[in-house]
Amino acid sequence: MLKNYFFLNRQIIEFRSLLINKKIKSVFTQEKDKLVIEFDDDENLFLEFCVNHSLPFFLIRDFYIRAKKNSMELFENLKERIINDILIASNDRIIAFTFDDSSVLFFAIRGKFTNVYLKLNTAFHSFKKTENEDLINIETDLINKQYINEFNVPEFTEEDYHSDQEKLKIKYPFIGKEIYQYAKAFEQKNLIDGIIKTIEIIKCNNPVVLPDYNNYEVKIGFKDLPMLQSDSKYFEFENLNEAITFYIKEFYHLSTLKEKKEFLLKHIDKELRRISGKQNNLHTIIERGNKEEEYKHLGNLLLINISKLSLGMNSVVLDDIYDGDKSLEIKLDPKLSPQENVNRYFEKAKDSKIQYQKAKELISGIEHEKNKLLELRNQISDSINIRELEQIAKKLRIKMKPEKIQENVADKFRQYIIDGKYKVFVGKDSKSNDLLTTKFAKQNDFWFHARSVPGSHVVLRVENIKEPIPKSVLKKVASIAAYHSKAKTAGVVPVSFTLKKFVIKRKGMEPGKVSLLKEDTILVQPEIPEGAEYVEW
């Protein structure tokens, strides 16, 4: 309705009594798509135009803070000019402000050419930059229009009463689709009676604004139009300027509310997916049980039969002296030596015990965290208060406007979660490696790379620098770094690791190349180790 011809017609009639004989003090812009006229009087009035074709409007403000910087004077020839009259084209959405020296300021709503234009003697200027050829055509069109300063009720003919909507649209293109919608809703004898009734309501009734917080929409119209249902919550105003001011405020409020809600819900859903994955992982560990004794049992059998083992064996069948000399097939890693295979089972016994105990400790905390997030999700969905959403963001320790790299992290890097807690990021290519190391990684994060072979940069995020990272976690991250390298098929791979603050990129280095000021090395098997969960996005 804000862009409807009859809405604008009603607006210029109301504005005439407020603006005629006002002297212009200055014309300036400090926001994209907005032009402001300041008047030289004791009332401190400002006339604001918005030429965004999605939300074009003009309104009067009694308060406006002009920025000290990024404010630019325009249309300086209008200074000291006095408004003579405010008119509307008889058949188009063009408002004309005439001045005491025959200058005319046009506000034209016409798609991408929505703009403010100034006709000054023989010159014709536009607020938003317009191509010369377009400007010439627009000038010709605007100055040849017929303008009126009264409410324009079309004089329908007898033939019009028997015409359908398509014919009427050709003859009266300025009526607008909303008028037809309301006209049909009134269920008059014919369409013209419905149109006349709708136009009469726009001419005489108080304006209303209907915010819809569920769908993030706001409508502006007039009392008694079919837009109002019996249970509609609306705000009624004495004049259009107050209604438009409230409408614009609610429009931006709901746009911001929608943006912040969607951002927070996206974050909550991502966290819920992460926590659900972690929860499932912990349940799997608990259901599997503590296999410490089982792995120890196998390790001891291998140890006492180590002479029967040799490099390259995939498995071995041994008599189980601890269980009535039953035969037992034990799987081996053909790339490991006999002693390394024995050690591997004792390490698995130790890891199984730790994982089981940790899973039992973590599961209740994870469930509590999940329930808390679900409560916050409901709170976010129900909220219509931006401040409340900002408080929730603060509670979640996230910024409402995150850095672009953080927002799009899933697109740039692979990600793993180790032991349901430690975040690991893996570069996908040379450019991604550079981005991961030079932009994303924090100074106290751990950085990994398979030594002397091409491979991914790998970063272990350190959330709390006061909490030491277990050696078992460093070893698992190193295995991931070896797995994402050209040495993926090797038996054992040396992996360099250090804190990110000791990783530098010198000027002129190729993408993905860095220098280490300090490093340690760890020997690992290239693999995605047990306890490492790949995060799907």
Brief overview, please?
The chain is of the alpha+beta class.
Defining traits:
7-stranded antiparallel sheet, single chain, alpha+beta, ibrinogen binding protein from staphylococcus aureus fold, elongated, 23% strand, 537 residues, 6-stranded antiparallel sheet
Largest sheet: 7 strands, antiparallel
Distance between the termini: 42 Å
Q: Return the structural class.
A: alpha+beta
Shape: elongated
| Strand residues, percent | 15-25%
Q: Which fold does the CATH topology of the largest domain refer to?
A: ibrinogen binding protein from staphylococcus aureus fold
Q: Mind telling me the CATH superfamily name of the largest domain? A: ibrinogen binding protein from staphylococcus aureus domain
Helix count from the secondary structure assignment: 13
The total strand number stands at 25
Spans of at least 5 consecutive residues whose pLDDT stays below 50 are 402-408
Q: Order of strands side by side in the largest beta sheet? A: 24-21-19-20-18-17-25
Q: What is the domain total for the residues?
A: 4
The CATH architecture classification of the largest domain is Roll
CATH class of the largest domain: Mainly Beta
Percent range of helical residues: 25-40%
Compute the gyration radius: what is it? 36 Å
Question: What does the average pLDDT come to?
Answer: 90
